[in-house]
Amino acid sequence: MVDNKDLFDDTAMTFGEHLEVLRFHLIRACLGLAICVFIALIFGESVVRIIRRPVDDALRRLEANERLNVNVEINDEVQGFNFWKSMKSGLYTMFFPPSVPTAKEMEETTPTTNEAKQTIEIELSAFELIAELHKVNPEKFPDASGDLHDTSIKLSAKSDAFRQIRTGLEKIDRPITLNVQEAFITYMKVSFIAGLIAASPWVFYQLWLFVAVGLYPHERKYVYVYLPFSLGLFLGGILFCFFAVLPTVLDFLLGFNVRMGLGAQIRISEWINFAVMLPLMFGVSFQLPLVMLFLTKVNIFTVNHYIDQWKIAVLAIAVIAMVLTPTPDPTTMLMMMAPLLLLYGLGILICQWNKPTASFEPAT
Which end of the chain is more exposed for a tag (fewer CB within 10 A), N or C? Predict the structure, then answer.
């Protein structure tokens, strides 16, 4: 077992000693990961609700748009669907979203108790109601007069069938599962991913302690400086995707279902994969400034190269955004391109600030 001495004081180690150090830190990393996964399993349902929130909110906004008929044109036949018109409408809605009721406002107008769900309010024409009653019993009910044509009567009807219908309609707007074990597998997958993310600083720290043995002091200094910056960019990309990209992309994509006259039912396992993969790709892509800095440190590129070849960089960023995004829609690609272009400018500033004393200039 390795003692508690400072690993940075070692100047030379045998192969067996390296294996012992690796075993020691892998065990500590796995223990930390196991603890975080166990805690995530306890709060797994809360984590699933957090990951579900963007799609639940998007379905709620879609229902509100259909209810208010805001900027929505439903075609009865798929053959009548106009792609470019829908694209224009979707992009307009993305940047200028219509005002829709909030979740609280919709909950206030939605029946919650069983008795309220069993009751519906119907509105009848007073003239037609009296006319029908007159047909049933002319002696008891007089004939309806013409003055009642513009008069309506509101009645309350109560039946358990109404509750069943309302319950079925509420389930339509929820993510679904297609087999009995899918919910459990999703729960376990989300808990493991959440535990892995929570334990990632501890795991990377243990790996760093192992790698640091073979680094020089000046190399360790660079890691101490840029590792927190890299972690901040990674988490910033994840948060930007979860709170800004996912709601926008969902509104854009679900809008096509409405304009094509299709009903959207989202499978929870597919949504979890999408909601995990897309933020991960954003977190990785946000490492662009550090990649640019690394290429300047090894004298492959210089700051002047980044400035002179900005057109090629824009094309490369567009290709990267197209490859990394798991969906083929242009909205997700544009949402990734925009911050990457800003990060490209940030990378130029960082490279200029850390400009090396000597650089490699390729032969012309």
Answer: C
Q: Name the DSSP class of 99.
A: P
Length of the chain: 364
pLDDT-derived band at 235, boundaries 50, 70, 90? confident
Count of other CB atoms within 10 angstroms of residue 105:
11
Rounded Cα gap, residues 130 and 97, in angstroms: 46
Nearest 5°: CA angle at 243, between 242 and 244? 100
The number of beta carbons lying within 10 Å of the beta carbon of residue 100 is 16
Q: Give the pairing type, strands 152-158 and 119-125.
A: antiparallel
For 149, counting Cβ atoms within 10 Å of its Cβ (0-12 exposed, 13-18 middle, 19+ buried), the class is: exposed
For residues 110 and 166, give the distance between their C-alpha atoms in angstroms, rounded to a whole number: 10
User: Which range in 60-64, 105-109, 139-143, 161-165 is most confidently predicted, on average pLDDT?
Assistant: 139-143
Residue pair 303/348 in contact by the 8 Å Cβ criterion: yes
- Looking at residue 219, its pLDDT comes to 67
Pairwise CA distance, residues 182 & 199, whole Å: 25
E-strand spans in the chain?
119-125, 152-158
Closest CA to 288 of 352, 333, 239, 337: 337
Q: Which residues pair with 155 in a beta bridge?
A: 122
Query: Residue 32 — φ and ψ, nearest 5°?
Result: -60, -40
